[in-house]
Design goal:
This protein has 488 residues and is α/β, with parallel strands linked by helices. Helices cover 37% and strands 10% of the residues. It binds flavin mononucleotide and iron/sulfur cluster (SF4). The site of flavin mononucleotide has 24 residues, from strand 5, helix 18 and helix 20.
Length: 488
């Protein structure tokens, strides 16, 4: 992952754990209304993909164990990982694109309800993503993948007027023999990118019929998925409008579609609003309907906070029950993958901003992104709307979380990695036992596992008591899959 060149190593925020009585009066543990449901506290475990589903996208016992373990810590809200709304193969990522997925998801909601004593609201994050392929070997790219055009023939002819280019095979062979330095003269920028990073669809590829049709196809797909979430017993859905995926790409200033769904802000927000309309028509007022989106795209030419604040007002006006704010996590600045690997959107600067580590710049990783949720919240309040806003990014300590709420930077505090390091951490604070918290070190071992599509665990507990009864191990047999119990 990219890291700020300053590489300043930051210490964890000094602990300030309250007594149980102080905690009972803290803002963090006051209830808050989220549309039709009440969150019992303002604590939130945001979506984290653990790579535990079957290759066909079904819930497994390991998926259930993962969420049960978070539910034991009784957060106000727990969000299930990004779950695909289409019925297409997508590796071991959860799916909700067909009714056959409902049975497994219903087992998951039942397990969470039981483990949290009904205290935790359970939402599921609904995602759509476009096609991405692995970086091809050079010979395969020129031998098979590249579509040969007259432009290639002309460019080759320009380099060598004597060249015989009668058959497609000769053109392919000639291209393959070119030194890398000459490729930019022969290939388009996009073809070069396909070779160097792997093919990746964009929402602006409107020459492809299935991309042109996204505005027609996506609202009913999201609505059907939300209907299945209700059937499976979820309390709400979080529409994934963040990071590197389809909906965030519609919102982005990089979206130049000219069909009324790109360009100016009102056009970029049009599809998200249509998705919200379709989802609400299907499941409101039964389910909480909110979204996660970016307070800043980070990448060049992408959205900045001014765009995000404007979108926040529009999304709130559309009746969303919460806005959860993230940052970055884009493909545009991702590192070049190795041959045979896919680009991963959390390897560049925007990825760092999404999941900052202790090796940082002056600002450091802790509560790094709450100025974004604060500014969005201010814009929403300025428009006369009370929509709750969720802030995230390096939140791992009581006084820190409490001051985010005090300063009005968020209405709920989301904590991903600290909750992975210690799923009981919110509960321990509530019980006045903060001194027992296993504190996240923010060095992103978990994120590196995610990047390799390996089962995600935390380095602070995954080698502990491996031979204890009922411990499930990772597929390499070396790590336990869920945190040890706090109270046995
Ligand atoms: C292993 C891992 C998987 C993640 N998966 C998702 C995801 O599915 N959807 C999402 O919106 N964010 C995802 N995130 C980002 C987190 O929700 C969160 O925004 C980010 O880690 C910053 O919060 P933190 O500093 O509290 O960890 C993931 C983070 C990690 C570490
Ligand atoms: S692996 Fe590291 S960054 Fe991830 S949750 Fe554990 S301590 Fe935190």
């Amino acid at each position: 992952m990219w890291q700020p060149p300053e590489r300043i190593k930051h210490e964890l925020p000094a602990p300030s754990w309250p007594t149980a009585d102080q905690a009972a009066h803290a803002r963090l543990f006051q209830p808050i209304q989220l549309g039709p449901r009440t969150a019992k506290t303002r604590t939130w475990v945001p979506a984290m993909v653990p790579w535990r589903a079957t290759e066909d996208g079904f819930v497994t016992p390991d998926v259930i164990d993962w969420y049960r373990r978070f539910a034991e810590g009784r957060p106000g809200v727990l969000v299930v990982e990004a779950t695909g709304i289409r019925d297409i193969p997508s590796g071991p990522l959860l799916r909700i694109g067909h009714d056959r997925f409902v049975e497994g998801l219903a087992k998951l909601t039942a397990a969470v309800r039981e483990a949290s004593g009904g205290e935790t609201l359970l939402f599921i994050q609904l995602i759509d993503f476009l096609q991405i392929r692995r970086r091809p070997p050079r010979d395969k790219y020129f031998g098979r993948f590249l579509a040969i055009t007259d432009r290639h023939r002309e460019a080759l002819h320009h380099i060598d007027p004597e060249a015989q280019l009668d058959s497609e095979e000769t053109v392919r062979a000639r291209l393959a023999a070119l030194p890398d330095a000459e490729l930019p003269y022969v290939l388009t920028a996009r073809e070069l990118e396909d070779l160097e990073r792997g093919y990746r669809e964009r929402v602006t590829d409107t020459h492809l019929p299935h991309i042109a049709e996204l505005p027609k196809v996506l609202p009913p797909l999201f609505a059907d998925a939300a209907g299945r979430a209700r059937a499976a017993g979820f309390d709400g859905v979080e529409l994934h409008f963040a990071h590197a995926y389809t909906m965030a790409s519609f919102l982005s200033a990089l979206n130049t579609r000219d069909d009324g769904y790109g360009g100016k802000r009102p056009h970029r927000v049009r599809l998200p609003l249509e998705v919200i309309g379709a989802v609400r028509a299907r499941v409101s007022p039964d389910l909480v309907v909110g979204c996660r989106y970016l307070g800043d795209d980070v990448v060049e030419g992408g959205n900045r906070i001014e765009d995000a604040a404007w979108f926040g007002v529009e999304l709130a006006k559309a009746g969303l029950d919460f806005l959860s704010i993230s940052k970055g996590g884009k493909f545009e600045d991702a590192k070049q993958p190795k041959v045979g690997w896919s680009a991963y959107p959390y390897t560049g600067r925007s990825g760092y901003e999404c999941m900052p580590t202790i090796y940082s710049d002056e600002k450091g990783p802790f509560a790094r992104n709450v100025s974004l949720s604060g500014q969005i919240r201010a814009a929403v309040r300025g428009a006369g709307l009370a929509t709750p806003v969720v802030g995230a990014g390096g939140i791992c300590e009581f006084a820190q979380a409490e001051s985010v709420l005090d300063r009005g930077e968020a209405d709920l505090v989301a904590s991903a990695r600290q909750s992975l390091a210690d799923p009981d951490w919110f509960l321990k604070i509530r019980e006045g036992r903060g001194g027992e918290i296993r504190r996240c070190e923010f060095t992103n071992y978990c994120e590196a596992l995610d990047q390799q599509h390996k089962q995600v665990t935390c380095k602070l507990w995954d080698r502990e008591a491996l031979d204890a009864p009922d411990v499930t191990l990772s597929s390499d047999g070396k790590r336990r899959l869920v945190a040890p119990k706090w109270r046995t």
